[in-house]
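re: ur question from earlier - yeah i can do the single chain one, its not a big deal. heres the input i used so u can compare w yours
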Amino acid sequence: MLFFLFELKVVYLVISIYICSQIRVCRITVLKYIGMKQRKMKQIVFLSLMSMLLLGSCTDRDVYQGGGEETDKNTPLKPSEVFDFSMMQQVKVNVDYGFTSDYYITFDLYSQDPMKEENDSWVKDESLSPVYSAPTDKKGRYSGTVEIPSDITEVWLYTDYLGAISPVKLTISNGEINYNQSAYIASLQTKTRGTTTGGHNYLDDWMLMPGVDWDGYGMPNNMEAALSAPPAEILYSIRGTYSNISGKQIKDLHPDWLNNNTTSEIKIIKDTELSLVFVASSAGFNNTVGYFTYESGTVPTPETVQKVLAFPNASPISKISGGERAGSLLCGHEVKLKYWNETEQKFEDKFPAGVTVGWSLQANAFKSGDILKGIGIRYSYSTMNYDNSQRVVALRDGGTDQIVAIGFEDNVDFDYCDATFYLKIAEANAIDPGGPELPPVDPPSNVTTTYKGTLAYEDQWPAQQDYDMNDVMVTYQSTLYRNVANSKIYKIVDEFTPIHSGGVYTCGFGYQLHNLEPDRVRSINVSGPDGWKIETDQPHSTIILFDNIKSVLNQKFTVTIELADVELSQVTPPYNPFIFVNGRSREVHLVNYAPTDKADKSFFNTSDDMSNVDEGIYYITRYGEEVDIMPFAINLPILDFSIPTEGVKIYDTYPDFIGWVKSKGTTNKNWYKNKK
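and the output i got, formated as tokens:
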């Protein structure tokens, strides 16, 4: 080729050499040769080869090194060419629990089933974190747009507040998650099991009220037509009391409730009707619940009482066992109890003064429509139990004296929430006022959502280099605190940890609350290694955590930001995070995130950068290998991202990256989980 050019007598050769000595940049003059002799041509070839060797030997390369002339500007990318390299999706969420009273709750969205079976109870797996959390309004409704990882196609709607079915598996369809509890219940109730019509089996020491039957899920045919959920304050109190609170149980928090059967006896002092109303169950067992009566002041025994069936299967409609629905009850399902008059051998509508009502639970007894022995009977009166343990905690509502909350323990964990009910008392002042009261519990005041991820940067911008995307890697966990009353964010706690430095330059890291006006920030407090600072001369709050990653590797920075009630969209993590290279003015951001006012804008469209500033397109380049475009930074929605191999392009370490980029994010959405 060189001889061919020589024969044409027209040769233009441009040589640009950068010789690195520490941070100094050396350049050679642009040479222009026309009509050279062959001897001169060979000298130029020799000099060219030497220049290439010198260029390859530099260990502290200048950022201008790249494909273009430093005085020329590259052709910006058109908006139609750009992929923002985001691994998040915007999803519209519409939730309607259909509460009729002023009862607001909080809920979570999980990317997998958050429940696990432990000690024969269903409990939330605390090792899992929700992808989003929010409060409802006072009618149990929520509508908003959330940002979650784009590889999530289905979510589990979870709440531990009573009156809401949970968890519910929902599919993301056309960018929306929709849940209407009334419609969901109706869809479940179409999947019925036939009523046994007297063909069921039950233990002969139990008695049925007249005409009682049930279907294959255990739904009795004497259930009241309308739901009878208690007032909101009762639901808050039952939820807060009958649970494992901070790892402590009722016996630890309230040992006085478990003395001499005081909490399980319901002494009738005035003739009254009684109803037992289902509230919730966290049991893994399918338990049968009933009641018995005895003369007040006497000591009942298993041989002297008659157990009467109330709920064949005290399992909620959301309960799943063996992959199939295992219950039918909703919060508020009510059964009117009847008094068994032993003397006259008949049932009566009212419970007379002078009798005491006790409770019984046949543990894990309901199976395929039949009531079997299960693992045994549990009584509310402790001396009736084989181990003398207290199996029921009953707490009176002091405000009305017509509600008693009742929690059953079916096995060994003693959280008393294996089956929770409330006793509805028709007449005022009909029960003995003695005994402990149901403690008041405040409604939720705040809800938190934690965003987690890993930020990965190339520090050679505006030049392309090895694209291993590991020159600077920082993990983040950002927890947003939301006021339930107005659904506004009032506090943020950010945790940033630099975990890897694969580059040779001196790189710092910071972030800007780019969608938030400074007057909405009340205070910023930073704890961590020395060197952090807050830049007060910027139009948006900007926090610099470190200016040299190598000096703070694996050290955590915690930033607490107090806010004046702002919208979630104004403070969605990770905000606008960036690195700065060999000084404060050379910033590298995520694709389409603007530089701060301290950045040197003259770097744009030099070397390999193809930004289109006028169109809001930043920090992106055309690429001539396996993909057409590449970023200089990326936000991965995962904490334990496996660090890409040093010097190996990210798409060689993570092959699915190629299809993801070529499809502009529509396929291979979980590429970052599949390392080669």
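The longest strand covers residues 489-501. not sure if urs matches, ping me
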